[in-house]
Structure formats: C-alpha cells, structure tokens
Design goal:
Length: 498
C-alpha cells in the first residue's frame, strides 16, 4: 500500500471521502512526517499538529453524519507565515513580529479551513517575502530536500516560499500556500520539482496577508501536480469585499475542466528570453517543452516582448518603493517588537526597533524604496518605472492577440548552494529574470517540473496566460506534465537523507 504521505490533494480527499482512510489518520501521518523532518529542513517556523487533528476530527464527524465534504476535506496543508492565522504566531519570518498572534484569520486561510483543510503549521520564508533563496529568514535557513549526487552541500529551496516548496517536495505536506510578488511561488517550485501557480492579480484576497508590494503580491497554490494546484486554487480564490483589489468574478471549476489537448491553441515563444549565456540545460528543457506542446497539438509561434529587458530594474524600483511604505507600520508602537533604549524619545524608539527587528535584505529594500520615492528622485525613478511597467503589460496584451499562452523557463538555473549568491544582491536578484514580467503585468503563470539537469536537480517550465485565463495556463501545464513524466522518472524525487 502507498504511504499516506506520498499522496497529493486529490488522492487524500477522495480516499477520505470513500473511507479508505480517515482524515485523522492522514493528519497523524503528516504530523509525524513534519516532526521527523523539521530538524533537518527547518521548513516550519511553528508547527500546529493540534490544528491538523482538530480539522481532521471535524471532517471525520461530517462524513460519519453524511454531510457534504469540502474541496479540501481531510487534507492537511502548510501555511506560509505571511498569512494571518487566528491565535497562531504570524511573523513574516521577521523578529519584528515575533510573538504576534493575530485575533483574526486571513481570507485565504479561512477559505481553506472552510473547504475542510487543516493546518500542519506556519512555513518558513524569506523575511517579509524578500529573497530568492530562503536565506533572509530570522528563524534560520530552509534546507532543500534535494542534494546533488554524492554531495552533501545544502541547497536553496528557492524563495520567498522556500518553506512551502521544501515541505511539499519532501512529502511532509501534500500542499502549501505561497505568495508571489516577483516569482516567489514559481521559482521555488522549479528548484524543488513541484508545481506552483500564481493566479491573475486579484483572484485571491490579500486581506490578512502581510504586505510586501501591494500592487504585485498574490497568493497561490503549491502542490505535487497540476490537478492538485487547480483544486487548491479553487478553494483559495474568490471575491472579498475587504480587499479593494479583489476580482468580483466567479471562480471556475478549474480541476473539472482540465484538458491536456492543445489542438487549435497557439503557444508563444518570446525571442527576448533567449538570453546570452543561457544555461544549456535550461535551454534544452525549454526546447523539450516546445516539442511537448507541439506533440499535444499546439502551434508554436515566435513572439516579441520588447520591453522584457527592462522588467528586472523596473521591478526592483517598484517593489522596494511599495515595501518602504508598507513596512513603515512596524514602529514598535502597536504590535510586535519594541526596542526602547533608556531615556529614548519616539524617534529613537522607531530607529532602535527597526534596527533590531529588520534583517539586512529588508533594510536594503526599504532604503532603495525610500530613495526612489524621495522628492528629488521620484520622477526620475518611480514615475519612469511605472511607465515602463505599462509598456511591459502592453507587450503581453499585444502578444496575446496572436497566441493563447506563452512558454518560457521558470528560472535561469537549477538550485544553487546556500551561501553561493548571498554576498552579491544583484546576482541574487537575477534569479527573478524570467518570472518578474508576468508579475508586473498581473498575469496568471505556473511552473511545472520539466526534468533534471546534469547535476540531477529539477528544472521548471513556466506557462504564462491571459488575465483571468487560469484554465488555459493549467491546461497547457497539464500537457507539459503528462509528457515530462517527471514523477515517473528514475530519481526525479529527492532521495531521502533527512
């Protein structure tokens, strides 16, 4: 019999509904897996085995009483520690919020609990979601469950949703929430050989999610495969009157409409993504993906996204600018850390609290953001970046007049070693080069595992779709998944060392 912890959302939900096993058995198995792996992986900041068991008991009772079960009934998940969870510490992986226990629940997490999911714990991440390697957390690095063959060097699980990606890849959570500002669902999914989707901006409520860059932040799903991501995203999405950016649109039944037949569909291949010096393994996986979609019946069309080359600098002006405004609320007055030196005034308390509570990367981005918003530089930097953002979005609009979806790599390389890029912020920022454009345009985008590179590490392919067309993204991703057969490849899951 397959181990319960090897199963994904669909298999667990259906197994509980059919009585193959109880929700309590599922929660117990995953709680044990989390406890065993946590010392090695550090994927969780806080574990909540009691929450998983409480939710499971409710599902088992509902099933026994013949009541209808939700989309996520009996599925325990990991919750990225950006989502406010009532009476459970929510820190954004920062010391400035250590000990903060909200008296409210984020809209996304509440929707998941209402759908029958349980919480295994709060997942580690880059502090305030600022990072691409999960090395900026105040609670220690997350370690990827993947290793290079015959090499014990710890690898980055990607970021900022590194705790989410590590937990799913290690089979200690069947799924996890993530947030994506510039690629923070897609890049870690690619690094760890799982699937992850960022929906259209506004599909999932941002209410109760600790803010980084409000015009970019979007919650999404991370799971073993495309079907599981579709199921979870359905449970997470929906209009929320508490969020002014929330889309007032019905949530389609994405999982039921999944279809890998690409006949009649056109797939765009942007020439600007063929970067000089591109990793040959990444280039090959992209070529493989093109061939797979052709095999699925799609027509391949070369397109141009001419302003792509400006996406990264545009992002690293807009996102820090919004972060500097959002993080001004952490002042030591209302909640979280307060550092009050003897004899200090209000300004001294602000300075001391922020110096002690924010990590180096957060401080760096606050300083960049404050600079580009300052009176002397606002027009030269921030205003210009917003204009370029409009041009980038216009490029996509024009491209989607010719094609249905766009296929590109997810990241410029496979996972790198912890510490390998942390000394050079610019090199670290380059990890977002393929994922940032879709974020700036607010488009749905998904990463699916495409195979292994020459070092035996996962590579991801990214499908970008039109606004509101998550179905098209999911369908193309399913076509890739079926042909890549990643889960069926020999050695395409991390070899257990923890």
């Amino acid at each position: 019999m397959t181990n319960i912890t090897d199963l994904g959302i669909a298999a667990l939900r259906d197994g509980v509904a059919k009585g193959a096993f109880s929700a309590t058995e599922v929660a117990t198995a995953f709680n044990a897996a989390v406890e065993a792996a946590q010392p090695a992986l550090n994927a969780f900041i806080v574990t909540t085995p009691e929450k998983a068991l409480e939710a499971a008991a409710r599902v088992d009772a509902d099933r026994a009483a013949g009541k209808p079960l939700g989309k996520m009934a009996g599925v325990p998940i990991g919750m990225k520690d950006l989502f406010a969870t009532r009476d459970v510490q929510t820190t954004a992986a920062s010391k400035i919020l250590e000990g903060f226990k909200p008296q409210y629940e984020s809209t996304v997490s509440q929707k998941l609990w209402d759908a029958g999911a349980g919480m295994l714990g709060k997942l580690n991440l880059d502090q305030f979601a600022m990072g691409s390697s999960n090395e900026t957390s105040a609670f220690g690095n997350v370690i990827s469950p993947w290793r290079r063959p015959n090499d014990t060097t710890p690898l980055a699980p990607g970021g900022s949703s590194g705790g989410s990606s590590a937990a799913v890849a290690a089979r200690i959570a069947p799924a996890a929430t993530g947030t994506d500002t510039g690629g923070s669902i897609r890049q870690p999914a690619a690094f760890t050989g799982i699937s992850g989707i960022k929906p259209t901006y506004g599909r999932c409520s941002r209410w109760g999610v600790v803010a980084f860059a409000s015009s970019l932040d979007q919650a999404g799903a991370m799971a073993h495969d495309v079907t599981d991501c579709a199921i979870m995203l359905e449970a997470m999405a929906g209009f929320d009157p508490k969020d002014s950016t929330s889309l007032n649109m019905p949530v389609p039944d994405w999982a039921a409409a999944l279809d890998a037949d690409m006949k009649g569909k056109k797939v765009g291949i942007p020439r600007e993504y063929r970067l000089d010096g591109m990793d040959p393994d990444v280039a090959k996986s992209w070529d493989d993906g093109i061939a797979w979609l052709k095999d699925a019946g799609a027509e391949i069309v070369e397109i141009s996204l001419p302003h792509t080359k400006y996406a990264l600098p545009t992002y690293y002006i807009i996102a820090p600018a919004e972060a500097s405004s959002n993080l001004a609320r952490y002042d030591g007055v209302r909640y979280g850390l307060r550092d009050l030196p003897e004899g200090a005034g209000l300004q001294d308390m602000y300075a001391a609290t922020r110096a002690a509570g924010f990590g180096p990367e957060v401080k760096r981005r606050i300083m960049i953001g404050t600079y580009v918003l300052s009176a002397g530089f606002y027009d030269a930097y921030y205003t210009q970046a917003q204009k370029v953002r409009t041009l980038i979005a216009r490029d996509f609009t024009k491209a989607f007049e010719q094609v249905d979806v766009i296929l590109v790599p997810t990241a410029p390389s496979s996972a790198f070693a912890l510490g390998e890029k942390s000394a050079d912020p610019l090199e670290m920022y380059l990890n977002d080069v393929f994922s940032v454009p879709a974020s700036l345009a607010g488009l749905p985008a998904m990463s699916v595992p495409a195979g292994l590179d020459r070092n035996g590490l996962p590579l991801g392919l990214q499908v970008i779709g039109k606004a509101f067309d998550e179905q098209g993204v999911l369908n193309a991703s399913l076509a890739l998944e079926q042909r890549a057969q990643f889960s069926a490849q020999n050695g395409s899951r991390p070899e257990k060392w923890w």
